[in-house]
């Protein structure tokens, strides 16, 4: 049986300058920060909400992924995952390959879909365009949240998706995944990723 060192011996001279340079251009702390985002089940969106300035700002982690896309795709491929870039919604997410992860992903995706469809249904019934759900100066206000919480049909739907605490718990679920941002007390709006997923759900529904 060959020694491990023998197995690692290159059969020909290989130029590793490109792979080395890609790692050298990326600080380990930044790479670790991206990894933690994905491990927490979050998407990495282009713009994140700055609560101190009350405005959207560019997400440096998104910019790093975008500028070093080839590197990170290879990196996560070696970890058994697929790094997916959604250009329309301006976000990145990880797709897991194992069956166990897929089952968990399916459940998470189902719960996200339930919340988004509920929000979209309420918003459309109020006569507003869904695009406004993705605007910091619009979105859902305090009156909207109170109306959602006061609707027993919506509460039953959320309980069926295991949101026992109703709307607040459901919104926290989206918030923790960067699908929704809180723009102050009693106000929230969908991130570019959250709005993209909602629009896709509506499109699928309309196509029957």
Which features would summarize this protein structure in a list?
208 residues; three-stranded antiparallel beta sheet
Give the N-to-C terminal Cα separation.
59 Å
Q: Give the overall form.
A: globular
Mean pLDDT: 89
The major β-sheet equals: 3 strands, antiparallel
Stretches where pLDDT is under 50 for at least 5 consecutive residues are: 1-19
Beta-strand share of residues: 5-15%
- Structural class estimated from helices and strands: alpha+beta
Task: Give me the Rg, rounded.
Answer: 21 Å
Helix content: 40-55%
Task: Give the strand order of the largest sheet, numbering strands 1, 2, ... along the chain.
Answer: 1-5-4
* H/E element sequence: HHHEEEHHEEHHHHEEH
Number of domains: 2
The number of helices is 10
List how many beta strands DSSP finds. Answer: 7
Describe this structure in words.
This protein has 208 residues and is an alpha+beta fold. It has two domains: 4-96, no CATH class; 99-207. Helices cover 53% and strands 13% of the residues. It is built from ten helices and seven strands. The chain has helices spanning 4-7, 17-24, 28-39, 60-67, 69-78, 99-125, 142-149, 152-160, 167-175, 192-207; strands spanning 44-45, 47-50, 55-58, 81-86, 91-96, 180-182, 188-190. The strands form three sheets. A three-stranded antiparallel beta sheet has the order 1-5-4. Strand 4 and strand 5 (91-96) form a beta hairpin. Helix 6 packs across helix 10. Mean pLDDT is 89; it is low at 1-19. Pfam families: MksE. InterPro entries: MksE.
């Amino acid at each position: 049986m060959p020694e491990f060192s023998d197995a690692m011996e290159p059969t020909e001279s290989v130029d590793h300058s490109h792979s080395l340079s890609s790692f050298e251009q990326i600080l380990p702390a930044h790479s670790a920060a991206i990894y933690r985002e994905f491990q927490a089940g979050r998407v990495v969106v282009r713009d994140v909400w700055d609560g101190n300035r009350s405005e959207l700002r560019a997400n440096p982690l998104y910019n790093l992924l975008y500028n070093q896309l080839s590197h990170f795709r290879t990196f996560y491929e070696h970890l058994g995952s697929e790094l997916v870039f959604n250009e329309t919604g301006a976000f990145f997410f990880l797709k897991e390959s194992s069956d166990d992860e897929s089952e968990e992903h399916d459940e998470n995706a189902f719960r996200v879909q339930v919340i988004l469809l509920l929000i979209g249904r309420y918003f459309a019934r109020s006569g507003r365009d869904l695009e406004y759900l993705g605007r910091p100066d619009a979105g859902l206000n305090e009156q909207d949240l109170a109306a959602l919480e006061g609707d027993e049909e919506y509460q039953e739907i959320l309980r069926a998706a295991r949101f026992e605490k109703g709307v607040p718990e459901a919104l926290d679920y989206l918030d923790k995944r960067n699908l929704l941002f809180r723009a102050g007390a009693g106000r929230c709006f969908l991130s570019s990723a959250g709005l993209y997923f909602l629009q896709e759900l509506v499109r699928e529904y309309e196509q029957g």
